[in-house]
Amino acid sequence: MERSFDVIVAGLGAMGSSAAYHLAKRGAKVLGLEARTAAHDQGSSHGESRIIRQAYFEDPAYVPLVLRAYQLWEQLEAESAADLLNIIGGVAIGSSHCGLISGCVKSAKTYGLVYDLFDANEMKRHFPQFVLAENEVAFHEQNAGYLRPEECIRQHLRCASKRGADLRFEEPILSWTAAESGEGVTVVSAKGVYQANSLVLSVGPWTSEILQSLPVPLTVSRRVMFWLRPVAQHSAFDKKIFPIFLWEPDQGPFLYGLPRIDEAGDPKIAIHHGGEECTPSTIDRNIRPEDEAAIRSAIEFRIPLLNGEVSHAATCMYTMTPDEHFIIDAHPRHPQVIVAAGFSGHGFKFSSVVGEILSDLAMTRKTAKNIALFSGSRVRHQ
Ligand SMILES: Cc1cc2nc3c(=O)[nH]c(=O)nc-3n(C[C@H](O)[C@H](O)[C@H](O)COP(=O)(O)OP(=O)(O)OC[C@H]3O[C@@H](n4cnc5c(N)ncnc54)[C@H](O)[C@@H]3O)c2cc1C
């Protein structure tokens, strides 16, 4: 048996790397165990870019958290001197009463966020790359942008190590047991047995494997990201003039995309809803003709200049809850075990603040942040 720790963090992806960093920052003795390598491409956090935005259409309750997330990304950038957060502006497109537009407006009004609403003609002037239907509008927010996910994870890990966190890679946890008293856990990994006061489980799409006895209804789904070479005017998709976008058409899938973020790169585009159910071991990593056909039919008339050859494509996994809100909560029988899961395809931008919350919960069993929306019991009782 090795020495014991204040907290063990299992899974050092987006959420776990941030939890390890915040724990180390507050002086906790932290052990991080990761099954694979740092910032690998087999989970949910790879693919060069992740959208960040403030007027959260999903629920206004996310806004204070995302505002804190921005501050924490800026602090991590300053500490690491790395390029993590890029604010380039963003648009959400849909008919004026669709859930996307009304949700963005509601969050913006609730929290006094600055935005513009453009009709189809105004969009032609501001962003001619998009072709809107006559009944569609665009909600524009200047503070939207993107993060570089692999670099965010690497910097959280590097800064956690610098502050004394003991981080071990290619060392999966195999099982854990929690004392009935509510204090103390024992974790068995592929290489050792460890003890700690608390355990953070942040294993993304692998959560159901580690929480077998807990009836949290999570489903994992396969998603495909495409990088497309524009048919002409490549510079029209540069990050200086092409915003991140979300698009909820009346007909067709909900899609999103990002500009080319490096000189040699291409814009990225993907479909947000749907996706075949899978597990981390059964996911089909091959790109199929029907994946490409779905993307092409979504953009053919909406972003025609982008409909060029595929320069690259990759699969990734969403871990969905039934209501698409996160789970950030203590285990119902073991308050010393904190679960962070079910980020439902929109969690990355929050990972800086989720790590801060996880460190609060692991060390003090409470947090000043409002996380009522993310309770595990609301999901289990549905
Ligand atoms: C294609 C795609 C696009 C997305 N776009 C956006 C976006 O634009 N904006 C946004 O905010 N969010 C986005 N998301 C969602 C976001 O990326 C995820 O919500 C987030 O990355 C999930 O992080 P995680 O820490 O839960 O999982 P992961 O980052 O996958 O981390 C889980 C880690 O646990 C490790 N692990 C598993 N089992 C064990 C074990 N037994 N022992 C130890 N370690 C283990 C894994 O190896 C992995 O490293 C997107 C997701 C995908 C797939």
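^ flavin-adenine dinucleotide complex. The chain has two domains: 4-46+150-214+323-380, 88-144+219-320. The first helix runs from residue 14 to 25.
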